[in-house]
Structure formats: C-alpha cells, structure tokens
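Morning!

As promised:
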Amino acid sequence: MDTLTCSIVERLTSPDAEVRRLAVIDLPYGDEDDIVPLLLPRLKDADATVRTEAVRALEGYEDAEVVEALAPMLLDADAAVRAAAGEVLSELKESASAAPLIPFLSGHTAEVRMLALRAVRALRVDAAFAPAMEALKDGDAAVRREAVGVLGYLRKAEAVGALAEIAARDPDPEVRRIAIGAIGYSSEVSVLPSLTRALTDVAWMVRDEAAQTLGKLRLALAVPDLIRAMQDEYWQVRVKAARSLGLLKAAAALPALVEALAHPIGNLRKEAAIALGELADPRAIPALEKALDDADPDVRKLSRLALTAISLAQK
Amino acid sequence: MKRIDMEFDLVVIGGGTGGPMAAVKAKEKNPKLRVLLIDKANVKRSGAISMGMDGLNNAVIPGHATPEQYVKEITIANDGIVDQEAVMAYAANSFDMINELDRWGVKFEKDETGDYAVRKVHHLGSYVLPMPEGHHMKKILYRQLKKARVEVTNRVVVTRVLTGESGEVVAVMGFDCRTADVYVIRTKAAVLSTGAAGRIGLPASGYLMGTYENPTNCGDGHAMAYHAGADLANLECFQINPLIKDYNGPACAYVTGPFGGFTANSKGERFIECDYWSGQMMMEFYFELEGGNGPVFLKLDHLAEETISEIEHILHTNERPSRGRFHEKRGNDYRKQMVEMHISEIGFCSGHSASGIHTDARGATSVPGLYAAGDCASVPHNYMLGAFVYGRLCGENAAAYCAEHGLGAVSAGDVAAEEARILAPLGRTDGLTPFQIEYKTRRLVNDYLQPPKITRKYEIALRRFDEIREDTSAMFAANPHELMRAMEAHSILDCAEMAARASLFRTESRWGLYHYFVDHPERDDENWFCHTLLSKGEDGRMQMRKKAIEPYIVPIDDEERSAYQRLRVARNAEAA
Amino acid sequence: MTIAATPTQVPVSVDNDKCIAEKGCTVCVDVCPLDVLAIDMLTKKAFMKFDECWYCLPCETDCPTGAVSVSIPYLLR
C-alpha cells in the first residue's frame, strides 16, 4: 500500500503503527464528516501511541458511546493513554456523561480516582457526592484535591462541615487552599470560623485565598479578622484583605486602610485607595489628597477616583 | 494553472477567529446553506490566535460589569468617536458568547466553586477573564466547523470581491498559493474576517515577518473592501502596541497587571497613568521612551516566586509561546531583572484601537451582501471576544440576507481583468521581487507615517507610494508562493496609502499617539467630533468624507465623564 | 536584469532521523501560517523553503515525532 496516495480510511488500518497514528492525527482535519465511528476502533489499537491519539481526537464528542468507550481508557496499561483519557474526560460538559465515570471514583489506583474525580467535577451530579466525601479521607493529596473540587462545584450545604475540616487540618497546603476557595459557595455564618482560622494558616497562599473568599461571600462578621490580616507579613495577603474590606464597605477598616495608603508596596497603596473609595467615608479625604502626590501614578489616579466617589456619595 | 469555478451561498474569507464563528453560525441558522470557509493558510492554525490566547480582556459578565458600563468606558477610551449601538451589540452578547465557548470546551479560569474568576484591572468595571489553557482554541473551533458541516478550503488567497450591477456581492476571486490555480467563486454574500493590517510598517528588527500581528494579516481584507466599493472608517486611528523589544510580541501588561506587574521607566518607576490599552497610554509610553527616561521595561522582579511562575506559565504557553525561548537566549529572567520594551510599527486593528472596514451593529458593510468581523472591521476595542460576537452576528445576518437574494450575474470582463492581474507577476521572467516592493513600502511607512504625524512627511510618502505603485507593474514571481507575496505587496501598498490619506484628512489630534498630528496639535471637537470614511471615488482614487456620530444610546453625563476621564489622564493634563 | 540567490540561515530546522514525511506526514507543512515549509521530493523530509518565519511554533508543537525545532530568527536575537 502506498501511504502517500491511499485514503485516510485505509491508512487507519495500515500494518504500520506510525501510519495509523498519522491517520488518526489527520482525521479531524480531513474530509470525513463523521469521524467518531472511525476513531472508536482505534481505542483498541495494539499500539499505545495510536490509542493516545485516538483518545485525543475524540475530545469534544460527547455522545454516550464515546464516553462509555473513553472511561475504561483510564485503566489502560500505558501511562500516556491514561493521562490523555483523564484530560479528555475532564472536558465533558453534560451531566448525562457522568454515569460511566462513577465506578472509577473509588477503588483502582490513586491516579485513576484522581482523574475520574476531575472528570466529574464540572458535571455537577449527585452521584459523585458520596464518593467525593469518601475521597476526602484518601491517603493521596492529589485525590483529596480533586475531591474538594467536586464538592466546591456541587455547592451542597451538607459538605460545608467536611470542607471546613479539610481547610483546617489537611497536611497539604494546596488542599487546604482549594478547600477554602471551595467553601466560597456558602454564605452561612457557620463557615466563618474556618475562614478566619485560615487567615492565620502557616501557608500564605491559604491566607490569601481566605482573604479573597471572605470578600466574595460578603461576610461582615469577618471584618475584625480582615483588619488583622492587613498586618500579614505577605503584602499579597494584605492586598486581598484590602479588596475584601472595600467590597464589605467596612467602616471600621478606615484606619488600617489609611495606614496601607502609605505602605512602601505600590500595589497595596493602590488597593487601599480603591477600598477607601468604596467606603466613601469623608474622613479618608486628607489621606487620599496626600496620595495625589504619590510617586506611583496608579496610586495617584485611583486616589483621584476615590475622592470623586466620596464626593458623589456626599450628594 | 487551472481555472476552478465554484458556487456557494456564503463565502467566509479568513479562518482565524471571527471567520469560523461566522461560518458555524450561518450553518446553524440555515443548515441547508452552502457555506465555504476559505483561508490562505490552514484553518487548523491560522490567524491571530493560531497558538491560542491567554485571556479575555473585555468580558462583560453579570455581577462584575454591565453592558452600559462597558459602552461608557469604550466611548471615553475612544474619545467619543464610537457608534454606541455597535459597541452595545458586542457588550450585550458578550456573556452568551463566553458561555457558548465554555460549552465548546474553551477553558476559562474559574474559582473552586466553578464561578468565572474575573479580575479587576483598575477600570470601573472588571473585564479580565484569564484562560490558563487557551492554547486549544483553534482545535475547538475546527471541531465546531466539522460538526456544522462547513466546507473548508485552505491555501487559497482571496484577492477581490466582485460586485454586480447594483454594487452587490456576486463572486470572490483568488488563487492557490501552491499551484496558482485561479478560483472564481460565485456567491450571494461574503464575510471578510481577514484580521488586522499588521504588515504595513517594518519592525525595528528589520525582519520582515517579525511583526506583532500574524504576518498573514497584511490588510488583504481592507484592500478588498476598498476595491469592492465599501467604506472604511477612522483609518487615521492607527494601532501601535507596547512590545517586548526586538521580539515584537506583546508585553502583556494586562496579563501581568492583575498579578502586580507594571510598565516602568529606566529608574524602575511606574509612569503610565492610563492602564487602558489606548492611544493615550501609547502617548505616555512614547514620551517616556523619547524623553530621556527610557528605555522602558516590564517590571515583575518585585513579585513572589509563585506569582512569577504562574505568569510564566500563562505567557509562555499561549498566544506567543516562543517568548520564553527569546528570553532564555537573552538571559532575561523575570525574577532578576526588568525586560526591555519598545513601541511597535503602525497598523490597522480594531481589536485594540478603532479603524477598519465600516460595519454597523449587524456586521454589515456599505456593500450589499458584504459583512466584516474581527480586527478588520471598525467596531472599536473588540479584541478576541468581539471577533467571536461579530462573527456570530455576521454569520446570522448573512444567512438571512442569502434567504432573500439570489446569485447575481458576474461580469466576464471583471473576471478576465482580475485573472490577468493575479497572473501577471508569474508571466514575467525578471524584474522586481515582491520582497523588494514590500520592504520599500514598509520602510517608507516607518520613515514618514509613524507618529508624530507631520503634513510635509505625509506628502512625501504619498509621492513615493505613487512611484512604488508604478514599479509594481515590473514585479515578478518565480512560483505560486512568491505570487502570494506579490499580491500581498499590493494590499500593503493600498493600506499604506489609506493610512496617509485618512491621516491628512483629519486636521486635529485625537486618540493620543494614534493620531498625534503635529501641525494640528489640539483636539477639535467643533469640526472633528465625527467619523471619517474612506472610499473609492468615481475617478478610481481614494476619497475622504465625514460621517456624523450616531446618537448615543447610553448618555454620559459630565460627572461620569470626569470620573472615567480621571482613570485615563494625568492630573496635570486634565487641568490643562 | 539578473536575480540574486542570497543564502540565509533559517530559523526552522528538521531532524531527518525523526521526520516521517515519507510515511505521508505533512503536519508541519500544513500548520505553517506563512506556508514556508515543504517536503523535499528527493530526501522525502520536511525543510524550510522560505525565510519568512513568525516563530509561532505550531510546526514544532504539532510535529508528531518531535523532529522540528524553531529558534528565534537571528535578526531578533
């Protein structure tokens, strides 16, 4: 068979694995309209590189038969095929696609559990809830991370307690950080203690996430803790705290924000100026007027804007 | 060389961003429509987003910004010269488009609960939505083309849109850049989505294809629209970009901004008052660069390691991934030193500024049956998402137009004339190379058209362009590939002349550096609060006219104007 | 008038041991926006035919065998 002249369908079953692989790569860009029936048999190809490309080429085709054929690829003997399957399955969009994935959420290897959890996250199906709650106890941090993600997307009140527990106690800082972000769907006051505790976490990324989430949830009771976070040793955390205090229009934050307006880090001065505009408290006027001569033009500009906001609020 | 005749209902020219969207949406509107998507490269990897995009910077998402707020900000950012209805058509459809792209598989950054992670970059609203894995963009678009059964033809350079007796679209013509086969495609309607005119000026490196825009985007669409009789709007509002010096890729202050990065002068100080990517910002950049405080740098070396790693991941995998390779060769490390920036050559690109083929809020040009979307069309500050939204509008409206119109009669004389024009360079055995014509045109653009604009310089440029136009009759191409470059050289020359004529017409200064006219340094709202339109006159030469600004649909009162204005300009300038 | 043939060092290089163009692969040629790559009819390998590179990298990232490498053109380095 002359590989340069024969059709793409013929090349898909060539005895040469490299030719088959090339045909799979070309298929989505060729003249064949209906590529799925041509690709499905290649998932069982003897050659792992052909299977990998076939998995990739099926991305975005969310028919039931495709999902049912792709899910078991998570158990493929070849690591590249498994990784490709995990990636492609994580692109699924419709809740109807979840059923074939549920059996992979528990048992198997940590890698399979992790990839399957990631795949069901955006599908937001109830059937994933119990396995995700169970996976919070997994020995593997990567699995716990994905389990937290599933619960964050599901936004169920029953998960808040478990997520708070993870946020407080998980040994892995990235898992704690994601848990803090994942709690960001609940405006129940009961989440307050875990979020404020996270403001004193040893890892700054966790504190950063907590300062941000408190603003997103508009939890007014957190104001005193956010004001304390304005003294964090990481200016990144202070920036997020200032942002959240502004969103909360926290009058009590005035002194802390005025102080931040004179901080050596320009980004913090900028955020403080924005927040003072949001507070719209005329007592900030002298500090903002002083900031009109700041060395940083961004701070000057945002101070001008804040002064306008305050004067508009007076009317 | 053969002649290939085809017949379609709708031909979409350019398969980058807006084009595939237009083709898919036309098919969705009417699955029976015969739609052809045609590209001089390969749709798989063509256009401005061939390697993806790192984020949206004009996402209008409920809870973070409103369409009205967006229209106001764009109106102010563009010094009032906008068709608000057209900007609103984008803003009102922005969120639906984001959701549709999300369903198609585009990965936008979300927080841990699945909400879009919109970032505020110190405008009044928040519009930045990062796409950490935006490099899959073209693959996703191609999949939709296949699902919608859109026919795709690659490596065919479209050179002209032919019109019928009442000036309506009747056909498009072009040639295969590998075989020189000439294509005559009868059609009821056409969408131009040919991107920016990014190859008018010469990059400082002197490397012809070292442009900011994908060099395929050389103004073919602008030239085709002009020759088809369409109006082009506000061409004097150039696009000029802040870039990484020599590399000519975007410095991406808008990507690094939310992380704490900024543009600094040689002392490491922030100097730009205007964050918004606008002529005002480029003016500040230009004066800092030329005024003794340069060079200008991108400063990230004050950021935390985790933040820099995240920035590197975004910048080095999307849009222009060779950036990392460039820095490595230069020994640049974001952690250790600032990275030198520079100012780009000029171009036309509505994505970042406001010039292009004039379109209304439906994507229609002034030629019946001709639509335009994306960087080549005139809707200001549209960026990638605007190309998608207007691609959709053009596709849907062109499909509706096709339902009411038949195929028009094509003049055999027009076809013969265009075929002769296309094939002429292949018929010669020696003469000037396309490279020589292109290089000289672009060098003169840098010498005479780069702002600050000066009347005397522009007059010299026009005379020299006329000379080059005569020289093009001696241009020869040794093969179909060179023929593509020869035809592109014609487009580049047309665009260079348009840039000069439009600039000389608007006798005021506006849009910061984009139209900084030294002989008319003041903004003159009394005479020039209007659009300018360029079109082909009866005599076959370029003619200019004014067009009144459409009545605002989102009024802006003085207090708001001053609040927005304060975001843009320095206190001293404001007082002045 | 005569036409000069001026040599230039091109930015895209192809490892012939890895290139499988002889098996029908044209991925790098297909994805180049400027159409500057081609398959040599004698060696049956891909090569850069025109020095008109935007260093955008699809030829390198999409090559199924990792045979293509792109360096920044000398004038920019």
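Chain C touches chain B at residues 1-3, 30-35, 49-50, 52-58, 61-62, 70-73, 75-77 (CB under 8 Å).

Hope this helps with the figure draft.
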